[in-house]
Amino acid sequence: MAKKGLTPEEKARLEEEAVLEAIKALPEPDRTLAEALHRLVRLEAPGLAPRLWYGMPAYALGGKVVLFFQPASKFKTRYATLGFTDAARLDEGLLFPVAFGLKGLSPNEEETLRALLKKALGSG
User: Fold this and answer.
1) Structural domain of residue 63, as residue ranges?
2) pLDDT tens for residues 13-47?
3) What are phi and psi of 47, to 5 degrees?
4) Tally of domains within the chain
């Protein structure tokens, strides 16, 4: 993806298009899960920029990936992984979770994710 000479808005649009294409190419149930996650992140954390990270959907702040989605199909596991990098502010003591197995997004999981996003971004 050539990015030289593009405005920041054009680059951001191309990055999001690449993420949406990668999501579209996922097999089910990863595709539906990634689509729901993408909608939720874009709604709840509009400051995070979609981008591909090792070919997987991810969301960055200031160029640093904060959150990523690892499809179950990528490593032939029984669940997808939702992970936060060290750029996320999830520290709580000496031991804290930064990755979660994800099999679906019910309203309960969506609420948990909203809280995690707020905390990760330092607003919660």
Assistant:
1) 8-120
2) 999 999 999 999 999 999 999 999 999 999 999 99
3) -75, -10
4) 1
